[in-house]
Write a structure and sequence with these properties.
Radius of gyration: 23 Å
Helix content: 25-40%
Shape: globular
Oligomer: single chain
Distance between the termini: 54 Å
Order of helices and strands: HHEEEHEE
CATH architecture: 3-Layer(aba) Sandwich
Strand order of the largest sheet: 1-2-3-4-5
Length: about 160
């Protein structure tokens, strides 16, 4: 009869006696990597709310321009794509930047190489799961600017960057 690791029997069960205290110690605790879901209505940070508002404006703009929205906030691990839009066989992975001023620089400058790489990883995951044969892919940037007089302007930078392989 072959014994497994840590005294487990032939079918993988541990036949040793355990004390009740050992069972209490094994109560599962949330891991530090596990995130709790927080509904949008409970968000308190104004930057998060502004970003979500900007994504909704971008979604409406793309829909009005004839794009079909495939996904909103598609996540792959810790990486995400704000919007994935389709027009025929063209699929655009869209990063949305919402700004109240130019104090932090141009929105295109805010998407550095690390963010581009993260978007590319999530886009590759989406492509493998949901992509169709014959699709063409590109990365777009959509900026939503709110002026001092609360006038909203939307700029769509098509093919904002390309992957370097």
């Amino acid at each position: 009869m072959r014994r497994g690791v840590f005294g487990a029997g032939p079918r993988g069960r541990d036949h040793r006696q355990r004390s009740p205290a050992a069972d209490v110690a094994r109560v599962p605790t949330p891991s530090r990597l596990q995130r709790l879901f927080v509904p949008v209505r409970e968000w308190a940070h104004p930057g998060q709310l502004r970003g979500l508002w900007g994504e909704r404006v971008a979604l409406a703009c793309l829909t009005a321009c004839g794009w079909a929205i495939e996904a909103h906030r598609f996540r792959f691990g810790r990486h995400d794509v704000d919007l994935i839009a389709r027009r025929g066989s063209l699929v655009a992975f869209v990063e949305v930047k919402t700004r109240r001023s130019q104090a932090c620089g141009a929105p295109l400058e805010a998407v550095g190489w690390q963010k581009r790489r993260a978007i590319a990883r999530a886009a590759e995951c989406w492509r493998l799961r949901y992509g169709r044969r014959g699709d063409c892919y590109r990365f777009d940037l959509l900026t939503v600017r709110v002026g001092a007089d609360e006038v909203v302007s939307v700029d769509h930078v098509q093919d904002a960057w390309r992957l370097e392989r």
